[in-house]
Amino acid sequence: MSLLAAETFSLQFDNRRRRRGKKGPSYPRRAYLCYQLTPQNGSTPTRGYFENEKNRHAEICFIDEIESMGLDKTQCYEVTCYLTWSPCPSCAQKLVAFAKAQDHLNLRIFASRLYYHWRRRYKEGLQLLWKSQIPVEVMGLPEFTDCWENFVDHGKPPPFNPSKKLQELGEASRSIKRRLEKIKILGVHVQGYYMGILCDAEA
To answer: Whole-angstrom Cα distance, residue 4 to residue 82?
Structure first.
């Protein structure tokens, strides 16, 4: 299994807000997806990661990889994904279709950052995942720690303090979690509104 470089993890999973006009080196925040597939029979988990390709998002690479494994559909699996960015609307729809076709998989998604969270379609993509029983949450200290321990190459000392870095990521995740909760609540209210209209129409 290939592993992320420590510096790649530090830069790409960084969830701290960038300040406009701040001096210092800039770098693109790319989309990475780390996954762990765990059979419920206690077998060894399978791990891997993908990053966006030119015409394929990391989520699509992940879907294609799992589908190519030929998993035993009589066996249940836990699948945990750690993403640098939450899924776009198109990937959200494809993840829902994938989960429905692979109903022996229990898929959970954790994101370091929310992608275009202020845009309606991106909010609706997240809400679609929740409605389809696919939990989407923001990575906190436990998830960052698990990702660091299982998906990063520890062959040489990193150019930063890992404990301090993980603590910073965990603290920065609090405001992002609050933002995600607002999107969840909005989705529940919208769904309740339309259910109310439907019930009135049928009365």
So the answer is: 13
For 109, list phi and psi in degrees, rounded to 5: -120, 130
SS3 54: coil
- Is residue 53 part of the annotated active site? The answer reads no
Complete edge-to-edge strand list for the sheet that includes strand 136-138: 46-51, 32-39, 77-85, 105-113, 136-138
Angle CA 38–108–140, to nearest 5: 105
Residues with Cβ within 8 Å of 60's Cβ and at least 6 positions away in sequence, in order, are 91, 94
Q: Where are the alpha helices (DSSP H) in the chain?
A: 6-12, 58-68, 89-101, 120-131, 141-151, 162-202
Query: Could you report the per-residue pLDDT of 19-77, keeping only the tens digit for each?
Result: 665 555 567 899 999 999 999 988 899 999 999 998 899 999 999 999 999 999 999 99
Looking at 51, 59, 78, 171, which residue is catalytic? 59
pTM: predicted TM-score of the whole model, two decimal places:
0.88
User: Domain 6-15+27-200, what fold?
Assistant: Cytidine Deaminase; domain 2 (3.40.140)
* Residue 65: closest CA among 76, 53, 129: 53
Residues written for the chain = 203
* Residues 6+ away with beta carbon under 8 Å from 134: 95, 96, 99, 107, 108, 109
